[in-house]
């Protein structure tokens, strides 16, 4: 039997893994990458350290995937987080587990993750073509029969794996080519949005606190629907004020949970989530008593960093210099309410240039989850971020790329 010819489009995380597994499966594999090098985005992951996966159990994985977690069952069964860690070790890049079960290479260098994959591709005899941009898919007799390059050349193949990534950080090569190719071949592509991205607020005051980070706060999003307001999302953690609004882990996660239309959404930051309103009021009363002759800001300074304390006083409709002993019970209640629920209104998500990932993409309805093969065009397989699956920070998104890539490569070689 002649060797199966497989073309992988895109030499990012998913494409490299797909090429490796297709070659391991005995196919003759060509990996086409438009950039001058492989894995340009992987280099900048985890601030250059590459948080390549998460050591959590699969239940936690399912919880950390925001859209279409069930689509991932077979891909994780084929290659899970342990599999990726073992593979990295085998390819000469040992890994370590850090806080939050985040997995990094022991060297703290993303380049070592790419180095490992390159060694694997080399060992398996994958042909890598850099500076090669694919313009479209070539189809014959209702099958995917190869690719058309930008220059017009057509390369034939028995199977093609599309792993061109999403739209985030377009400078790394992911400019949405794969969505267009998939749509042209009859696949549904759901609306895309920047995700794991900072959020702009209607209020301009966060700009005056730019750079201030908050730990152990609770960020909650509410949405007005019908007569009643609904809680959309709420989590505790860290966040950051920026010149345009909010960023940091909580804001990034929230961005993935917000609806496309932000009308009717409001946010609250609980600065003291460990204290219920009654306990916090008792503390305020105690502080008011102890500092009755001082200015109000002296009390609030004990509850928040000074710049934020000043803002809290303003938001509560009070003044920093007012004597503590002049604060009425009603004013104290307003201050307490502000500390427990600092109000913010999201205006927009920042754009793809700042988004860690893209939300939306090729509809999972058009992909067989057991093989990653298209249900519309036999011989075409999908892998990575261009599929409509997205997850939280912590190594989950790269694991999605590794797992879908490995399954696509293996199935394409076996089919
Ligand atoms: C700043 C940043 C930090 C991140 N940190 C982490 C992290 O620490 N942990 C984590 O899990 N995730 C992280 N992510 C997300 C993670 O990088 C992505 O989920 C992952 O890279 C997606 O892999 P992919 O192969 O699908 O897409 P990509 O990595 O984007 O690869 C797609 C490749 O296809 C190529 N390509 C595109 N079109 C064509 C074409 N027409 N012809 C040929 N080639 C083409 C591109 O040049 C690119 O190399 C981070 C993302 C960013 C932006």
Tell me about this structure.
This protein is elongated. A 7-stranded antiparallel beta sheet has the order 18-17-14-15-16-13-19. The protein has a 5-stranded parallel beta sheet with strand order 7-2-1-11-21, with helices on one face. Strand 1, helix 1 (13-24) and strand 2 form a beta-alpha-beta unit. By secondary structure, the protein is α+β, with helices and mostly antiparallel strands. The protein is built from 14 helices and 22 strands.
Name the features.
five-stranded parallel beta sheet, 14 helices, 33% helix, 25% strand
Query: End-to-end span in angstroms?
Result: 13 Å
Helix percent band? 25-40%
The unique ligands bound to this protein are:
flavin-adenine dinucleotide
Sheet-strand content, in percent, reads: 15-25%
Oligomer: single chain
Could you tell me the mean pLDDT?
A: 97
* Unreliable stretches covering 5 or more consecutive residues: none
Strand adjacency order, main sheet: 18-17-14-15-16-13-19
- Structural class by SSE content: alpha+beta
Number of strands: 22
Biggest sheet, open or closed, and with what strands and sense?
7 strands, antiparallel
Instruction: Describe the global form.
Output: elongated
Question: Concise description?
Answer:
The protein has helices at 13-24, 40-44, 58-64, 73-78, 81-90, 110-123, 177-184, 205-208, 248-257, 277-290, 296-301, 306-315, 329-340, 396-414; strands spanning 5-9, 28-32, 53-54, 65-67, 95-97, 102-105, 127-129, 134-140, 143-149, 154-156, 159-162, 193-195, 199-201, 213-225, 228-241, 245-247, 265-270, 342-344, 346-349, 357-359, 380-382, 390-391.
